[in-house]
Amino acid sequence: MGDSKDVMVHFSGFPEGKAPFMHLPEAFLTELLPRIDDLAELQLTLLVLWRLAQQRAEVAPWVTEAELLSDVLVQQALGAEDTATRLTQALDRCVARGSLLRVVWKRADGVEEIRYLANSPRGRIAAEALRRGVLPRKVRSAARPNIFALYEQNIGPLTALISEDLREAESTYSAAWIEDAFREAVRLNKRNWKYIRAILERWDTEGRDESDRRDSEADGRRYVEGEFADFIQH
Predict the structure, then answer these.
(1) What residues pair up with 55 in beta bridges, in sequence order?
(2) CA-CA distance, 119 to 122, in Å (whole number)?
(3) Is the separation of the CB atoms in 94 and 41 below 8 Å?
(4) What is the pLDDT of residues 124-135, one digit of tens each?
(5) SS3 16
(6) CA 193, CA 179: separation in Å to the nearest integer?
(7) How many CB atoms lie within 10 A of CB 207?
(8) What is the H or E stretch that residue 100 is in?
(9) Which residue has the higher pLDDT, 187 or 1?
(10) What is the mean pLDDT of the chain?
């Protein structure tokens, strides 16, 4: 659990005001957390789930072992000495536990890379696609428009008062939630910030289980009926 010589770094506390949150499935707390008995495994599980939550993919996001090895937070969590060995051991535990899925993918240049996905319905679909040689597209969230661009594109010109509200929402909710809330409002022809903010507040209070389930089903249909149809047995 750590070297006795390690010096504890005191945490200064969470910042004032609303801060972005990482949403975890309830099963993580009720089923997975009580069974994890290794600190490195717990740290890595949380870091990988956080990294995956920052991404967006056609079917499901993944992270490579090389990306994790170069991740500063992973290095800090596992220690600077022999990080590669500790990472491999922690990943092995995550895969054996069933929290993560591991797939070996051969790139176009012939190099094999090890990819990790969350063991979720979408993750299992994507892992099966990768094992069959199909590459689901992976798009990083950095390419998404920010909340101010979304407002101008879908509602209208910004005002000082609205800009302050948008800035607060951007620091509170994930980019994925904000984008989905705008999309939902446009779909219902409710193009106003008050309605969009109400959607975000409802998701934050009640969760998005039902919405996520529908999204997963839609992704599954695209997988079965779209470009991956030849790889699925109906």
Answers:
(1) 140
(2) 8
(3) yes
(4) 988 988 888 887
(5) coil
(6) 13
(7) 13
(8) strand 100-106
(9) 187
(10) 79
